[in-house]
Amino acid sequence: MLGSMMLAAATAAAPQAAPVASAPSTPLAADAADAARGVIAYPPSFFAESQPANAYDMVLRVPGFAFDKGAAVRGLAGAGGNVLIDGQTPVSKTDSLDEILKRIPAGGVERIELIRGGAPGIDMEGRTILANVVRRQAAGFRGAVSPALFFVYNGRVLPSLRFEGQWSWPGGRSAEFSQVFGSGHMPNPDLGVGPRTRYNADNTVRLKSQVEAFGFGVRMYTNGAYETPLLGGKVRLTGTLQVNPGWTEIYDHYRSAAGLEYQFNDIQRKQLELGGRFTRVLNEHVSLESVAFQSFGKLVTDVRFEGPGLTRDFLSDRKTSESVGRVQFRVKGFADLTFETGAEGAFNKLDSATDLTVNDRAVLVPAANVQVEELRGEVFLRGTWRPSAAFSMDMGLRQEASRVTSAGDVSLKKSQNFLKPRAAITWVPYKNGQVRLRVEREVGQLNFDDFVASSNVAATGTVVAGNPDLTPQQAWVYEAALEQRFWGAGSAALTVRHFAINDTVDRGPARDASGAIIRNPVTGLPAADRPDNIGKGTKTEIQASVTLPLDRLGVPAAQLKTQATWRDTKVTDPLDDRSREISAAHPLDWEVHYSQDLPRLNATWGVDVIGGYRERFYRLAEIETQKFSPWVVLFTEFKPRKDLSVRIEANGVTFRNSQRIREVFIGPRNLGRLDYTDVRDLEWRGSVNVRVRKALGG
């Protein structure tokens, strides 16, 4: 968790465009047949008034679309986000989707296609809406250099610098390169200033303190790509090197007694990835695509905690590697029928060493030192039938098989097989209306972070063991969506999803190789908890989104985009057999984005509001609840010249409050013996980002 927090902090190195939604100055270009079957094309003229710098800015302004950069999972299936480039998912996973899109200058985009429901030759990967960036083929050089300053509320000034360039030559050859260096300090649950109060079980105050938490991260990214014709087809090679050192420092000054708690977290992350894609049209009916990449990662987490009469030291050293290869054939049959078939294989490896000492004495942590290997393969067959412009059906079948072996503290061999069918229907019952239905069996990807001990032991004293014996979570997903387009660029959509879950991944007591609960030899109580499969569960989501052009309401060149997701989850708690929500699920997520283009001033301004949310974690002897207030960003961007832009962002205008409530029990929480409730209430007081972008080339 701490590693991911510092990665988020370092991400602030190069201030990024906030999600906005500008109104079009020209009618959208959409072929009638394309629009009927759910593909809407937005040409550069649609985005002209907002003067986007790159493809990322353009994608954020597509009506009825919410950007998702994808999940950090192993393998290719399900890892990509919801944006394609020239009809294909980017090869890289280390190089994030938003970074890839930022390297495509707006002048290099032919059009943005919004794919609703599906399209021939497009694997939707379980999604009902995708955006496709179609690049313009033109020789020459395009690039940009972007210096920025990040003014933090506590007086710190953090610089960053970004360079990106694209070269194109006749004959289909092209190259890309980008270099990012920056420092960042972003709000997260462990950073900010505010009070902490610890209450006894009878609600009397045990301790009061004042928390001051600071963090710093550096991000050094080098990315490159080269594309050229080869063997009658086209090959694209990519490479990424990322270095992310960072730290957090937390001072907790006692106010009701003499004392100080201090924690220092040092996180060092390095990632290297090399990849390639080869495509070739074999004949008028068959085309080939093959993808391969190799990645290496190293994460060192060193945590030191000091308090009255207590010290804890936690050290984790993780090395990971991933090898993935995929081959698929697309077969165009009759005019309204296409097929895809292929196979994917992956080999993943984790080598983790963990040490924990309390008051200079070593503490045993289950699954602290493990070596895990996973060999996984998948074959798939998919077909799309489109008998008319108003109706299409997408059906697919995937068979996955995997073998996990573990050595070290946990020795095991485990084989698993999963069949993953999918069926989706898109129907256009009337003009500008669309109905989408989907049934699919989803199988989640296991997270290597769950296989080894967690660094939370240093911060809270709670032992969180690893579990290489996890089974991927599976779910039958039933989805129905209704979308209505209006006012040219307006859109309203309502989506309902229900997940019937098996092998829910949550928290359970740590167990030995025989399956018996590991108990404290003195108390006889369970000694630790770990990520575990805790049985069947359900999740129901209702999502609503609206894109509203405001011209007709008297606000020229302005647009409002909103989205909200209500979520209800249920699972049986393994400790007390009672129904509860699934850990980390958000009951409600929402956001609002408003922007207005000011063509006469060559400027855009707006406000983004990311709604507050709540998440809860159920552990062996603790229930932790985190609450976050809404996050508000005011921004303006103007272009004094065609090749020069200045963007100013005021982040956290209303400040950002994060509250952590820990209900800590004596022994397992199902015994009901509450020891104390710890309430920490921190506030992040905002920052101002200033970025200058100078375009280079044509």
Protein described:
The strands form 3 sheets. This protein has a 22-stranded antiparallel barrel. A 4-stranded mixed β-sheet has the order 1-3-4-2. β31 and β32 form a beta hairpin. It has 698 residues and is mainly β. It contains 6 helices and 35 strands. It has a single domain, classed as Maltoporin, Chain A (Beta Barrel), CATH 2.40.170.
Terminal residue distance: 43 Å
Provide the CATH architecture.
Beta Barrel
CATH homologous superfamily descriptor? TonB-dependent receptor, beta-barrel domain
Number of helices: 6
Q: How many beta-strand runs?
A: 35
What is the overall pLDDT average? 85
Helix content: under 10%
Domain count = 1
What about the largest sheet?
Answer: 22 strands, antiparallel, barrel
**Which CATH class?**
Mainly Beta
Taken from the alpha-carbon principal axes, the silhouette is globular
Computed structural class: mainly beta
Output the radius of gyration: 26 Å
Name the poorly predicted regions: 1-36
The CATH topology comes to Maltoporin, Chain A
What amount of the residues lies in strands? over 45%
Show the helix and strand layout.
Layout: H1 2-11, H2 32-36, E1 39-42, H3 44-47, H4 55-60, E2 83-85, H5 97-102, E3 109-116, E4 129-135, E5 140-152, E6 157-169, E7 173-184, E8 192-200, E9 205-230, E10 233-254, E11 260-281, E12 286-307, E13 310-332, E14 337-358, E15 361-362, E16 370-388, E17 391-408, E18 412-427, E19 433-443, H6 456-460, E20 474-486, E21 490-502, E22 505-509, E23 529-533, E24 537-549, E25 558-572, E26 579-580, E27 588-598, E28 603-610, E29 613-618, E30 622-628, E31 631-641, E32 644-651, E33 656-665, E34 674-684, E35 687-697
Parallel strand pairs: 2-4
Antiparallel strand pairs: 1-3, 3-4, 5-6, 5-35, 6-7, 7-9, 8-9, 8-34, 9-10, 10-11, 11-12, 12-13, 13-14, 14-15, 14-16, 16-17, 17-18, 18-19, 19-20, 20-21, 21-24, 22-23, 24-25, 25-26, 25-27, 27-28, 28-31, 29-30, 30-33, 31-32, 32-35, 33-34
